[in-house]
Task: structure prediction
Amino acid sequence: MKNQAIFQISAAAIQKWQEIVDLLAEILCVPSALIMKVEPPNIKVFVSSKSAGNPYETGELACLNTGLYCETVMKTRKLLLVPDALQDENWNANPDSPESYNFKQSDFYIKSITDLGINIIFRLGYSAEGKSAIHHNDPPPSYGKWANIAAHIVRHYNQGWANGFHANIRYWEIWNEPDQDGFWPPRPSPTNYVTLARETCLAVKQRVPNAVVVGPAAAQMPTVWRPKKPLFDALLADTRLLTCLDAISLHTHRFKQKPETVSRDYAVLRDAYLSRWPNGLPQKPIIDTEWGDSVYASGLTEDTQARWVARMYLVNLMEQVRLTNWYCLFDVGGDDAEMEHRFGLVRLDGTRRPAYQAYKILARQLGAMSLKQVIARFNQRTAQGASALVFCDTAERCVLAVWETEGSFGPRMISVPGWRRTGPDIDYLGREVASPISAGGVLEVEVQTAVRYVPVAPQPQVQNDKSVR
Result:
């Protein structure tokens, strides 16, 4: 309590300081004069001049070690004079100054997407320079400064900072695949990534508390073949980062393996890592921010891609993974021999692959519904067998989704007790298909390797020879 009393500042003193910074800003003809307060691990704007064009708000927090003017003074214990920051190579990119940013191209992309009502997962990190082929994916030299920049980007799009938007972008993912050489050159460093992610998450949350911050966007989830993943070891060792993150993000590409194989890898993730989650810390959900399959020359056929796209989402739902992001909407190149060029639902010439239609039908059939019941599921160990899931909306309209994995001897029938058909069956491309006649009041459905959607309602129960609902 004694130390706390030392740092208490009276309202009268704060008012005098306010008058001083207001006067300084006016005399020196500068947009802002500040008094800062250090509250490790942060530095806070304690008093800010009430001058036109001042970008700083009283109470605004920033992480230490971001290269601010104040930090330089504290470290050197010397006067710092920067006559023109824009002409000084040490200060010409101040993260707090709107003039340091060029949002033009990304603003165009964000507006185009939000105008269509599409939700965005904004990835902070790997980027392209405008419309050029110049990519930036090297780890930043200053993690604190990069974290400060990331926080201002979030503010630009969600709080209107620097003539920005109020786009209500919910998900902010820190970096892309830091466990890959190509995205953390020259080689991955799990401890360095975790440091960057921690500082970035804290910086974003301080300025935009309702932002949903996720990471590590891991390219390599633990698998039955390679259960050891250093990135996850480093993640679990940093409780401050785990506390800050809202979800753990993974990339679950199967590379020509059927979607159901991901379940046994989730089992490895739970057994090898989530079981070691720190005691007393609420466990964060898993989300899948990249899953796709390429139809390049050595990849899937376009029909198989279409048959698998809905299965990917449904398998994740069975694994309690509530967010799945398909990679990607458009092809990114014209080389049919290059895997990265052929993930799109839409071809390079703008024509739509069958998977586009399958994705559309999935959204149309189940988009407003929640998973209500898992009636049957494939064998997790072998990734073989049939699955039957019931989805319902708030009005209790329900749809049964059924499919079977590859390797069976052909289409077969499964019985679904407790439910009755209320309309025609719809296949994965949205076509009505013949519905089998139920025998003995039990719903029967033909299962194939593509998802079939069957509108259903609960079967009336019979009590004392009377039908009741």
Observations:
- The chain has eleven helices and 22 strands.
- The chain has three domains: 2-87, 103-368, 374-468.
- Residues 2-87 form one domain.
